[in-house]
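User: We ran a pulldown and think these components assemble together. Before we commit to crystallization trials, I'd like a predicted model of the whole complex to look at. Sequences follow.
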Amino acid sequence: MPQLSNSLLDITVRPEIVMSRGEGMYLFDSQGRRYLDFIGGWAVNSFGHSPDFLSKTLHEQAKTLINASPSFYSEGMLAFADKITAISGMDRVFCSSTGAEANENAIKIARKFGATKKEGAYKIAAFKGGFHGRTITAMALSGKDKWKDLYEPKTPGFVHFELNNFDDIDAMPWDELCAVMLEPVQGEGGVYPADPVWLHALAERCKKENTLLIFDEVQTGMGRLGEFFASHLYDITPDIMTLGKGVGAGFPLAATLTTESLNIMEPGELGGTYNGNSLAMAVGIAVVEELQKPAFIANVKDREAQLRSELTPLLESLGCSAIRGHGLLLAFDLPQARAGELVQNCLEKGLILNAPQPASIRLMPPLICSEEHVLEMLDVLEPELTKLLT
Ligand SMILES: *Cc1c(COP(=O)(O)O)cnc(C)c1O
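Assistant: Here's a predicted model for the assembly, 390 residues in total across the polymer chains.
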């Protein structure tokens, strides 16, 4: 495989282009070629590339305070905590830098709960096809088949079930569980939403069994689904919610949110050098303020409707699946495992798409995507899809 660097550790196969600049919905490579970005930094850059409010916020904060150490309160830490708990309907927050860490912190809180409030129950039920990050423990929590035998031995204590399977709710070892954890819409697995009736049944069972319900909203949170959070879309308040990706909009920021009754950690039990880092807090505050502008969420819903109505007839005529997902986290399946080819062909035409599975295409553009951007995307996707499948 060709590689552009003899210094980088080879971890993946990347196209032979070098990105040098981003502006709104577009990335530009070192040759000055422009790409319409429908992966948005991996469902991260919700406000597009280098939006003014974010670069100004970072610049101003960098001049004021970058890092006061995790041992002090800072103004940003206090303000972000108030804002993110208010908008999410949760009570308490602990910040970190990545989604995997936010999930690790959720696991720690759940295990502490099990140790102190449920006779030592420590297991966590999760779901096949789920994705929760790449630390050794987050990998064990993820239900990804490909990782089954990787980096053994993994952290014990996780059991996996089928999403949307009612029998599997009964099959869970409830007495041994401190928590059930899931992505309300599986993102990396290929955009599979939890069935609302099933999720409500699961939530009720968790309550009855004194077992925490944890939503990994690293991908679904912060407006991605056309609601602030998946918990709002499903009208279920989890005991713990984790955020990443969109909460920093490109800056490394993640959060573990809990209800008041889970404010149970003793000094020293949770920590991390960058928790409440001032640059990250300034970003988080600015992001929440932007998210709360009504036109922002309205646009996500409008773009979803536009994508569904514009794409559906073509997908039907080509034998593709219906579009699944919510807001601007959408996917569809091709009749053949040729999604990688389609992504490659579109890239050559200046459009960035993602194939989370060999036969599926995922759309997760920045949430500021306009009607014209959708049309511009379809101008490339429609002929390429038609060419590939006919
Ligand atoms: C991306 C993602 C993670 C991991 O986030 P990192 O910042 O890469 O550690 C965890 N959970 C979900 C649902 C994700 O989409």
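The longest helix spans residues 294-317. That may be worth checking against your pulldown data before setting up trials.

User: Thanks, that helps.
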